[in-house]
Amino acid sequence: MSDFGSILLWVIYPYAMLLSFVFGTIIRFGWFRGGITAVSSEMLEKRKLMVGSLVFHVGIILAFFGHILGILIPKTWTAFFGISDETYHIFGSLMMGTGAGLLALAGIIILTYRRFSNPRVFLTSSWSDLVVNVALLITIILGLASTISSGFVEFDYRSTLSVWARSLFYLHPQWQLMATVPWIYKIHVICGFAIFGFFPYTRLIHALTLPWQYIFRRFIVYRRRPRY
Ligand code: HEM
After folding, report:
1. Which alpha helices (H) appear in 68-159, and where do they start and end?
2. Whole-model pTM?
3. CATH number for the domain including 211?
4. Is residue 225 part of a domain?
5. Which of the ends of the chain has fewer CB neighbours closer than 10 A, N or C?
6. 165 pocket-lining for ligand 1 (C-beta < 6 Å)
7. Which residue range forms the structural domain that includes residue 208?
8. Hey, whose CA ends up nearest to atom 21 of ligand 1?
């Protein structure tokens, strides 16, 4: 790929998505706070939602912490705590990463099936709800495929892709490091950044709110209408 193509993909594109994430979130919380919601469709279908949502959230939260460990924390830090490259690859990446990824995948398959197959849920979904589901499904499949491929193909993402990702944060992007990264990882990263870019304008924004009021508020008492 030409230098221009690489700079476009590994410098301009990720910064554009991160800026969209930061400013979109500030604008959404500052001016449109009232519209922040997970847009629950529980009253339209409950069984698949309960299973799919639980499994998906457990998987994606574990995968999130896996990304912090594998991408944001340098190898030298894990080595300091006695975690060798091999231990990290087998236990952190192949076992825990694949486990988390499979949970997230099972959850998002159930949720996507539910959204597209249940007429009531489908007809009340916005375009953004449908796109978010499909985008998560594709990104999770690609992430999982990257992790599983590392069991067969020798590739150390922690000394290439992760160093590039961190270089974005200290504003000195080392885009050349992406040259040797396999395409399966690259497409996963492109999809991942797209999700970040569109995050504030979709239902995903609910992930940035913690519903503290549920812990402290009074119970809401629902009673059946008596039948006479
Ligand atoms: C919302 C966005 C994203 C989602 C839903 C997602 C999801 C996943 C999943 C499910 C896996 C499988 C392994 C695991 O569970 O950790 C994975 C792996 C991976 N992801 Fe992501 N990801 C996202 C964004 C990103 C971004 C932005 C990057 C890079 C900057 C990235 C880099 C990686 C790498 C390097 C792996 C392989 C990890 C390994 O083999 O241990 N991901 N991702």
Report:
1. 75-80, 85-87, 98-117, 119-123, 127-149
2. 0.90
3. 1.20.950.20
4. no
5. C
6. yes
7. 3-216
8. 143
